[in-house]
Amino acid sequence: MSYEPPTPPTNLPTDLVNTLNESTPERLRDIATYAEELAEHKEREARLEEETTEDEIEKRPDDLPDDVPTKATITIKEINDNRYYYWQWREGEKIKSKYKGPVNPDK
């Protein structure tokens, strides 16, 4: 571990870097957790918004419930330090989810 402070990415705005530099370690950890969750959310949103072309043949997975559309993707949610799989898809402006099962069924 270096004794020098880390160098911020060049694409970060100066005001954001200054705010981070003035933050406490606890706040920085909160920011890091939020940033990671926000990135996952935005990536999931982008995946859900992608439209399949008519040329693509959609095969329905064997474990996909009847009330979940073929376009659904699997996401992982952490609840009380446990991780679970959920089917997720978009219906208009809303994102719908349906429980699939635990990530680690042995727990």
Automatic annotation (TrEMBL):
Residues 40-50 have a biased composition (Basic and acidic residues). InterPro entries: DUF6788 (IPR046738). Residues 55-105 form the DUF6788 domain. It holds the Pfam family DUF6788. Residues 40-69 are annotated as: Disordered. This is DUF6788 domain-containing protein.
